[in-house]
Design brief:
Blueprint lengths: L1 H4 L7 H14 L3 E6 L1 H7 L3 H8 L3 E5 L2 H9 L10 H15 L2 E6 L2 H14 L4 E6 L6 H11 L3 E5 L4 H9 L7 E4 L3 H5 L8 H5 L3 H8 L3 H24 L1
Parallel strand pairs: 1-2, 1-6, 3-4, 3-5, 5-6
The protein binds uridine-5'-diphosphate.
């Protein structure tokens, strides 16, 4: 797993946002993966995920405290978490400043619609290039529409690894655009679901809040995060011995 962790962005969220702002200004195409234990664990047995996590043109940012801890355990330098919600939030305010466009793909119909209306109200200079909920039959057809719309930012909220695979499959069809898989961010940013209170975010226990709110997440958490840390520990011991 070290091969993936070594590629993770190691400066602050503020620095990364400044970098993305420059990409927007210069129309530089970018695919950002908010990397968490789940994506790293899956990549070990999934050729396409493995390829994209090792692809030099793809940016990996650390989403999740377990990724930060894993990096520290294996001696990889990282600074702080950079989450999908924070990147999405930043990009929208930046699009407003630069008067550029966004396409939103994912979440339930009422969630994405609420989100679009919220963006229109809060950020009147953002151009909505289009949107689609994430429960359509033909996801590739939505990407045909996105190619035509040629947005400056495209946020895809379908959950890991579907959102990343879909972006990676289609990214060569675009000349520009910042593409990010943002998981459950539309639910939170639309106001349909509450994000964890600041206390949980500050103390890196946002995961605990999400499990408390949705106990069905516990199994997923165990399968990714807990097993992940065990595997990292094994790699660390292997490295030392
Ligand atoms: N989702 C979707 N289509 C699907 C399955 C899921 O649009 O077929 C959306 C779902 O509504 C949610 C997001 O994908 O908004 C995934 O959220 P989750 O909380 O599982 O992602 P995480 O943030 O944990 O990666």
């Amino acid at each position: 797993m070290l091969q993936y962790l070594k590629r993770i962005y190691n400066k602050s969220q503020k620095d990364y946002c400044a970098f993305l702002s420059g990409c927007l200004e210069n129309n530089t195409k970018k695919f950002v993966i908010t990397t968490n234990p789940e994506s790293i664990m899956m990549a070990e047995n999934d050729e396409m995920l493995d390829k994209m996590l090792l692809d030099e043109s793809v940016d990996l940012v650390p989403d999740g405290i377990a990724v930060i801890k894993a990096c520290q355990m294996l001696g990889v330098d990282v600074t702080e978490r950079i989450t999908g919600v924070d990147i999405a939030d930043f990009l929208i305010s930046e699009l407003n400043r630069q008067k550029k466009s966004i396409y939103l793909f994912g979440a339930k119909p009422e969630v994405v619609e609420t989100f679009v209306n919220k963006i229109k109200a809060d950020y009147p200079d953002v151009q909505i290039a289009g949107y689609s909920d994430g429960y359509v039959k033909d996801r590739d057809a939505v990407f045909d529409e996105i190619v035509n719309a040629a947005p400056d930012v495209c946020l895809v909220a379908l959950g890991i690894p579907h959102q990343e695979k879909l972006i990676y499959k289609h990214i060569d069809r675009f000349e520009k655009g910042i593409f990010v898989g943002v998981g459950g961010s539309f639910d939170v940013l639309s106001g349909c679901k509450a994000r964890a209170p600041q206390f949980f975010i500050k103390h890196n226990i946002e995961w605990l809040y999400r499990i408390a709110k949705e106990p069905s997440r516990l199994k997923r958490f165990y399968n990714s995060n807990v097993k992940f840390i065990f595997k990292i520990r094994k790699e660390k011991n292997h490295k030392v011995s």
